[in-house]
């Protein structure tokens, strides 16, 4: 899978984690751990670049979600975002973003 697509997954997950106003180190580490498990050739440097691009961007969560069109990748992105956001306690604002992703991609909230 090309690096740009993986970076889009990272940005959606980080965006959901950021909904409470902060991306904790725990959340960021969890996103990378889950990405690296599925895409072992995705370098940590590319991950850091994707996170930095997210923080310097004005895009909204929908802007990031539209870039992920494959249904399997949408499910994977949803799962890592949900698990990462919950890694330090799922805030109500993060939960709202999770529901937004479910509705946007027409997934079930498993």
Describe the structure.
- The structure is a single chain.
- The chain is about 70% helix and about 0% strand.
- It contains six helices and no strands.
- It is mainly alpha-helical and about 110 residues long.
- The chain has one domain (about 5-105): TerB-like, CATH 1.10.3680.
- It is globular.
Average pLDDT number = 93
Structural class: mainly alpha
- Tell me the count of domains: 1
What's the end-to-end separation, in Å?
25 Å
- The SSE string, one letter per element, is HHHHHH
- Total strands: 0
CATH topology: TerB-like
What characteristics describe this protein?
mainly alpha; TerB-like; 69% helix; 6 helices
In short:
By secondary structure, the chain is mainly alpha-helical.
Please describe the topology of this protein.
Elements: H1 3-17, H2 25-38, H3 44-55, H4 61-65, H5 71-86, H6 92-105
């Amino acid at each position: 899978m090309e690096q740009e697509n993986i970076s889009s997954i990272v940005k959606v997950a980080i965006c959901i984690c950021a909904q409470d106003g902060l991306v904790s180190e725990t959340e960021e580490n969890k996103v990378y751990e889950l990405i690296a498990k599925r895409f072992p050739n995705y370098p940590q440097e590319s991950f850091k670049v994707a996170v930095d691009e997210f923080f310097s961007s004005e895009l909204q969560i929908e802007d990031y979600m539209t870039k992920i069109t494959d249904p399997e990748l949408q499910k994977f992105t949803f799962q890592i975002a949900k698990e990462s956001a919950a890694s330090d306690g799922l805030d109500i604002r993060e939960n709202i973003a999770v529901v937004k992703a479910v509705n946007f991609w027409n997934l079930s909230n498993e």
